Amino acid sequence: MSFTRVLIANRGEIARRIQRGCHKLGLETVAVFSEADRDAPFVAEADHAVCIGPAAASESYLNVPAILGAARATGAGAVHPGYGFLSENADFAAAVEAAGLVFIGPEPDAIAQMGSKIAAKAAAEAAGVPVLPGYRGADQSDSRLLQEAGALGVPFLVKASAGGGGRGMRLVTDMADAPKAIASARAEAQGAFGDPAVFLERYALRSRHVEVQVLGDTHGNLVHLGDRDCSLQRNHQKLIEEAPAPNLPDDLREHMRAAAVRLAQAIGYRSAGTVEYLYDPERRAYYFLEMNTRLQVEHPVTEAITGIDLVEWQLRIARGERLTFQQPDVHFEGHAIEVRVAAENPAENYRPETGRITLWVPPSGVRLDTGVGEGSTVGHHYDSMLAKLIIHAPDRAQAIRKSVAAIDGFAVGGLGLNLAFQRALLIHPDFAAIRHHTAGLGEMFVNGWAHPAPDAQSRALATLALHLHLVPTAGNTPWQGLGAWRLTAPAGRPGAAFYWALGDEDPTSAAGDKRHLTIRLPDGTPVTVEAPGLTADRLTGRVGGVPFTRAAHLRRTKKHWQVFLSTPDGMAGFAIETLEDRHLQRASGKVGGADLLVAPMPGAVVELRVAPGDRVAAGDTLVVLEAMKLLQSLVAPFAGIVAEIYCAAGDTVAGQAPLVKLDPEETQ
Question: Where is the Biotin carboxylation domain (predicted)?
């Protein structure tokens, strides 16, 4: 079972995670990628990379012949499936082994047995592991299922035997809905997994999701690595995970761990796997749900509290090595939390977000497993999870605080993420008091969750950050600053600069000097900042004599500025227009349909030859600009009337700054 090169049949953050594990052991890696992932970080970081098909997963990451062909072409000796895609596909594992390669995971038979929820529950019962009451028989006729449903009573679940992730699952609270629920669960199971078989299971209200990590070698050694809680879920999809599972009675915890080991031993399990339970705190009872025969998304929290590298041990076990530790050698230290970072908008029914990441500034001092970075493009082809924040602390309370601080220090631009929602979950009283459960989001946010609106001071400070970024500072040449002041002087407003929050008609003003700056919001609210400063992505100053320091990151889009600022409710993004932006929009027809003469490059206005109301012909010189020691005559592009002037002789202007607004002359 010796191998030196591993093909990773996956993508994104888990591909990079497995690459790190391989390199730790001196193994080369082969990345397989779709055309959509050609420029992804996991491809660039691999020792070898092979394109296996178009963006559609069915033609690439689920394309078994293409994956095996890539393994042969690159001389890979083993295949690691990661999680998702083909990771729990027994036929794929068998095909890998039939090709003479090592499958880094359990035996295909174990995958198949645990892949059928009906067979898995039968194996659990045989191993003495508690299961929920229900019907798991071979007779799949409507009459038999409805008969068993009547005997079981409501509430109950109809669940697909194959697959997972909440697909093919229906909750029945009224027996009259049972026929429809069975039919729809069957149809979804057939479409998603190619298997319409379903089973019935009593529904446990206010239950928690607790799971136990197991690890076994090929020599019969098998241990557990503790437990995790994954109860914060949306539609059976996990949001936040933690280890160890909090507030479990000690005796019950030991029973759950021992039962997981018993089941894994009964099926001769090797590699990393997870036994999942439903835990009923009211009855102090637990029930087997399923066994995941792969690496879990949440494996890092177990690594954090045990110090055991699960990917490393998957690789070592696949090479035939024995575990170098026994159960008494496994120790648990502190508490760990994992936050899934996804490109979605929870305030709008978890609408997926796509686009190019223009800013990616992760927090320091915590583990971040990520598949993207600044410049990455997020498309619609794959799962919305982009990264995972993993936080380790001495206890749960500190882990929560540290998790919130990590989110507050995470700045991302270009597309929306779920970080504000995850922050709201972490600080919710139900989570702190461990009252949360698998169906508890509706109780935590009775009226739904809305993205918190930034407070007035934060809105003012975002404008301040942009203002300090744009105005010239001591030591700058005229070519290095936009000179926000000069834009307002011709309008009779010396000492004030104006900015617009995207969508606002009324501006926010900035007035004062380097000792005191007053930002006045559109509603007239003033915020005066003493000793304002912006250096190294930090905005500093004093408001009302109280000093502040806020993280501030600025990025330019084609049409406006983006300011990312830490606020009392976490990192917030602000889209802000300058006066130039407003007039450039007018020039392009976005605002009012007027036409502008703009500076072709930074320079100084030497001469202004027109005044408002002047009639000019096409080709007439309107402004003379000095740039790079050369004089340039800027002429009217068409005949018209001078409507507005935005500069004066002696002004320093930026490239693309508006100079003169020209209305076309109407033809009779």
Answer: 2-446
Answer whether residue 482 shows pLDDT above 80. Answer: no
The Cα 240–Cα 337 span in angstroms is 7
Question: Coil, strand, or helix at residue 474?
Answer: coil
The pLDDT, as a whole number, for residue 597 is 87
With a cut of 70, say whether residue 586 has pLDDT above it: no
Could you tell me the two tokens for 364?
Answer: 């320091």
Please give the mean pLDDT across all residues of the chain: 91
Mean pLDDT of 87-92: 97
323 and 438 belong to one structural domain: no
Which helix (H) or strand (E) segment holds residue 424: the answer is helix 419-426
Cα 292 from Cα 499, distance rounded (Å): 54
Q: Which amino acid is at 188?
A: E
Question: Would you tell me the crossing angle of helices 90-98 and 108-115 to the nearest 10 degrees?
Answer: 170
pLDDT bin (cut points 50, 70, 90) of residue 238 is: very high
User: What percent of the chain has pLDDT above 90?
Assistant: 78
Residue 630 has pLDDT above 80, yes or no: no
Question: Is the domain of 491 the same as that of 565?
Answer: yes
Q: Out of 310-314, 370-374, 522-526, 598-602, which region has the weakest mean confidence (pLDDT)? A: 598-602
Sorting pLDDT into bands at 50, 70 and 90, what band is 77? very high
Q: Please name the amino acid found at residue 458.
A: S
Domain co-membership, 56 together with 160: no
Phi, psi of 519 (to 5 degrees): -100, 120
Report the C-alpha gap between 432 and 490 in whole angstroms.
57
pLDDT of res. 243: 98
- Give pTM, 2 decimals: 0.83
User: 428 pLDDT exceeds 80?
Assistant: yes
Nearest to 639 by CA among 614, 657, 659: 614
Question: Dihedral through CA 45, CA 49, CA 51, CA 56, nearest 10?
Answer: -40
Helix (H) or strand (E) holding 208: strand 208-216
Distance CA 308, CA 299 (A): 10
Instruction: Answer yes or no: is pLDDT of 417 > 90.
Output: yes
83 CB-near residues (< 8 Å, 6+ apart): 10, 14, 294, 295, 296, 297
- Domain span at residue 307 reads 106-132+209-333
Does 350 share its domain with 433? yes
**Number of separate domains in the chain:** 6
Q: What is the DSSP letter of 324?
A: S
CATH number, domain at 627? 2.40.50.100
For residue 88, the one-letter residue type is: E
CA pair distance 520, 511, nearest whole angstrom: 8
- Residue 264 buriedness (CB in 10 A; 0-12 / 13-18 / 19+): buried
Q: How far is CA 160 from the centre of its chain?
A: 28
Cβ neighbours of residue 440 closer than 8 Å, sequence gap 6 or more: 206, 231, 232, 430
Radius of gyration of the chain (CA): 31
